[in-house]
Specification:
298 residues, 34% helix, 7 helices, mainly alpha
C-alpha cells in the first residue's frame, strides 16, 4: 500500500508468526528489486514492524520475533503510526486518542493569542477557528476508531475549554449549556457525524471498485446490484465457510454472536439517510468536500 509519495506499508497474513516474517521478507525483496530498475531506494532505518494478533495469541512468545531487513533486525513495536492513526496489536483505540488532546492543545494555544479577553477577533471567528482548526485535530481518526469511556472524558474536557473560549464564558459555567451557547455540538455528536460520513462514502461508492462496498448485504438499497457475500473472498479469508454478511440494518451485537466483517457493523449508520429515498445514490468520497448538516443526531 502506497501512502502519500514515499511511504509503503506491507501487510501479510498467515497462521503463524514465522510465516508472516518469511512472507514480509519475500515481499520486501521483490519490492526492492522493482525499485532498483527505476533508481529508487528505501530508508531501511525507518522500517517499523508490528504483529497483529488475536486475543488467544496475545501472550505468545512468537509475537516478539523480529524481522531482518538488509542485515538489520527490527523488533515488533507496541504501537505503530500510519497516516496519523496509532495502531496497537489489539487494535485498542486508547493509544490513538491519547495523542490527540496534546496536538489539539498546541493549535488551541496558538489561536488563543489572536483573541485576548475583551479584544481581538469577533465571536463568529472564534467559532470558525474552533470548527476548522481545533475540531479536525481533536477528532482525527474518529471516523474509523471509537474512543473508550476514558478517552471520551479527556476529549470532552478539552472541548469544554474550546466552548468556553468561543463564548467567553466563566469557568464555573455549567458544561450542559456550553454547547448551546457556543453553537459547537458535543464531542459524541461530532464523532457520530464523522462516522456516518465515512460510512456514507464507503457504502455509496461503486462496488466494483471498493471491495468493502461489494460485500454489503444484498438488500442494501443501492443503485448497483453487484453485491454478493462471495464477491470479495479475500476479505473473508480465514472466516467460517458458512459466513454471511450481517444485515445492513443490524448493528454489531455485543458480545458478537458470529464472525463478520468490520464494515458490516457500521452500515446501519446510513439508516437516517434513507428517509424518503428508495435507493442510495452512487458517490465518490473525493467529491464530498464538507460535512452534511443533516447527518447530526437531533
Amino acid at each position: 500500500m502506497l501512502s502519500y509519495v514515499d511511504d509503503f506499508a506491507l501487510t501479510a497474513a498467515s497462521p503463524s508468526y514465522r510465516g508472516n516474517i518469511r512472507r514480509l521478507q519475500e515481499l520486501l525483496e521483490k519490492l526492492e528489486g522493482k525499485a532498483l530498475h527505476i533508481g529508487v531506494s528505501f530508508s531501511v532505518a525507518k522500517t517499523e514492524l508490528i504483529h497483529w494478533r488475536t486475543p488467544s495469541q496475545r501472550n505468545s512468545p512468537w509475537c516478539l520475533f523480529p524481522i531482518q531487513v538488509t542485515g538489520e533486525l527490527f523488533r515488533p513495536r507496541d504501537s505503530l503510526r500510519w497516516l496519523g492513526y496509532w495502531f496497537t496489536p489489539a487494535l485498542d483505540p486508547s493509544t490513538h486518542f491519547s495523542h490527540l488532546p496534546a496536538l489539539a492543545h498546541g493549535a488551541f494555544a496558538l489561536i488563543r493569542r489572536l483573541s485576548p479577553p475583551g479584544a481581538g477577533l469577533a465571536p463568529y471567528l472564534y467559532h470558525r477557528l474552533a470548527t476548522s482548526l481545533v475540531a479536525p485535530i481533536l477528532l482525527y481518526g474518529a471516523d474509523l476508531l471509537t474512543p473508550s469511556a476514558g478517552a471520551m472524558a479527556c476529549l470532552n474536557t478539552f472541548w469544554h475549554k474550546v466552548q468556553r473560549w468561543t463564548t467567553n464564558c466563566f469557568s464555573a459555567t455549567p458544561t450542559g449549556i456550553l454547547a448551546v451557547e457556543s453553537c459547537l455540538p458535543p464531542v459524541a455528536l461530532l464523532i457520530s457525524q464523522r462516522q456516518r460520513l465515512a460510512t456514507l462514502w464507503v457504502a455509496c461508492s461503486p462496488p466494483e471498485i471498493n471491495p468493502a462496498t461489494a460485500h454489503l448485504h444484498a438488500l442494501f438499497p443501492s443503485l448497483s446490484a453487484h453485491r454478493s457475500h462471495n464477491s470479495s473472498r479475500v476479505l473473508t479469508r480465514g472466516l467460517s465457510s458458512v459466513y454471511l454478511p450481517l444485515h445492513w440494518k443490524t448493528p454489531r451485537p455485543v458480545p458478537p454472536l458470529r464472525n463478520h466483517l468490520p464494515f458490516d457493523a457500521v452500515a446501519h449508520k446510513t439508516i437516517p439517510l434513507t428517509h424518503r429515498l428508495s435507493r442510495m445514490p452512487m458517490i465518490n468520497s473525493h467529491l464530498v468536500s464538507r460535512p452534511l448538516p443533516f447527518l447530526l443526531d437531533p
